[in-house]
Amino acid sequence: MKSLLAITASALILQGCAFAPGQHLSPNDFRGEDRTAEDGTVKLVRITPELLKGDIASSMGTASKQELLDFQPESYRIGANDLLYITVWDHPELTAPSGAQQQLEANGRLVRPDGTLFYPYIGQVKAEGMTIEELRSTIASRLTNYIDSPQVDVGVLRYGSKRVVLSGAFNTAGEVPITASPMTITQAIGQAGVDVDNADLSGLTLKREGREYLLDIDDLNRSESWLHQVYLKPGDQLHLPYNDQKKIYVLGEVIQPQAMIFKSTSLNLMDAIGTAGGLRQETASGDAIYVIRGAQNIATQQATVFQLSAKSPTAFALAKHFPLHPQDVVFVGPANIARWNRFISNLLPSAAIIGTGAAADYNLRR
Prior knowledge:
Blueprint: H1 2-14, H2 16-19, E1 30-31, E2 36-37, E3 42-46, H3 49-53, H4 62-70, E4 83-88, H5 92-95, E5 109-110, E6 116-119, E7 123-126, H6 132-143, E8 152-158, E9 163-168, E10 174-177, H7 185-192, E11 205-208, E12 211-214, E13 237-240, E14 247-252, E15 258-261, H8 269-275, E16 284-293, E17 303-308, H9 316-319, E18 329-334, H10 336-365
Helix pairs in contact: 1-10
């Protein structure tokens, strides 16, 4: 019996690391020059200064960016449902037919759904598609048959023909009219307001004429931002998703494992580890800091595991420049001694039970 116990204990101790409880990951799990797992579904990439020089963060292509910057709005063209205020100087009966005491909109001229409006003396006018200046000149020219040298002015009381739609995590989502003053993306966002606690700032999407452009509101905080130069076009849709489905998971040998809300692309590996309270110095392995990033289509693409060697605290200079993506898993593995201690702590109670049983069996045999 004693020999059997000794052999069993020796075998368990020799296999201690393999049977240690808890999850662990090692570079040895990845083989070959391309550092791919045996099943071929996961690839290991080391976080180095050379890697960070590359574009590992998702960004808009140069061509798409240029398409947005190339659009320059032209002069406002009148459309159906616009409410116009037409002034003919020295002729109040034409300017305010409802009476000067009435509210301004009561004397407005509504552009009908067919694009026309009615004006005294000259009848129907096809206003849709005209600029404000073109309509002013047309009315003045046609009034010369009835009024000597008419002085005409045209303004828009209410814009109703051209709109953009803002949806998602805006404080005031809905339709925003396009006016005679061109509107940029940043102006529309500022007007609607952003629910910063619940918005995914990295997921702003502009839908235009059947195409989608992924933008990043958080980019406005950077000196090289170009979003303030992008003008909105009638019919555009801006959607800002909520961040309730986008998180970063920090697991393993950190002080406070947790799921973090992903709010912007500025969240980096150092931020995630710091928010989790840092590494457990007594149990964490400096060579076992990983970022596990799944593939969009696991059936055809490889997932990627990024490894940071942080035996020295200076390695966190690299972590500060490594951007995280939504649904990334940050895993800090245990040191070998920690795995060993956990194995022993689980082994000793079992060994005590076996020893007690052996002693009882020995006493009964005596």
